[in-house]
Amino acid sequence: MNNVAHSDIERLRDGIDAAWEEARKFGLDPFPTHFELVPASIMYEFASYSLPGRFSHWTHGKAFYRQKMQYDLGLSKIYEMVVNTNPSYAFLMDMNNLLQNTFVAAHVFGHTDFFKNNAYFQHTSRRMIDKVSIHAERIAKYEFDHGKDEVERYLDAVLSIQEHIDYNLLLNREAPADAEEGSKTPSTEFDDIWGLEDRAKRAEEERELKPGKPPKFPEKPEKDLLLFLIHHSPHLEPWQRDVIEIVRTEMLYFIPQMQTKVMNEGWASIWHSRIMRQLGDRGLLPTPRRSSSRSCTPAS
């Protein structure tokens, strides 16, 4: 921020406002977006934690060291980081020039439109920055109560299975009985064939429930391993269940971003090219000032 002249900040603000106007003209409906200029160290810290204010763990430090070293060596560069909240937060690199950051802002509006309107994100928390800050406070309290090493060892175990959750949030676990019966109206003389599998399953269940044989547990396969441990593990202490719930809640927030990565980036890229073309046609593209004291590391 200190490397950016006040006049450049004003010009960047004007460029972002113009990009927002063009995005709305194209029919995009993004969340209101708050932009911040940050140095590389802050950008890579946020990127390594995935969200500002998240709980501390050595894996986040490892990610920071790897990403920051690649940036310092000129092997890669993060141009922006966007947070799926309402309002959204977008962090721009202060070492980018004025034109680059205007370009990136147009890209951001594609992302925030995608976050707001894509079906995969409809059940994600729009106040996740507040939530992860509360999670971090709870984990810090557990470290004080039970020891940092103990909590770290337990987090190591939970994070090793963090992706074993139920991704299909929009699917019902079990269809209503009346809806199932209503779909089985006979239409031909061979319709009874389709019931063979259901009858075989019922017969198998009856055999398993014979006297002297313990009932099947769980009754149905459970894909969400973290949720299963929270509800059924007889050995966990309350703080350990809470840590699993924290990790699970945060993973449910991140999973849609993993599922839609290519589509999300493609959507943002299509719209930043159209928005910037319109700004160029209107003569609104900012021209960066030349300065021998500032340079940009090339992206990979």
From TrEMBL:
It comes from the Bacteria. Residues 8-279 form the SpoVR protein-like N-terminal domain. InterPro entries: Spore_V_R, SpoVR_N. This is SpoVR protein-like N-terminal domain-containing protein. It comes from Dictyobacter halimunensis.
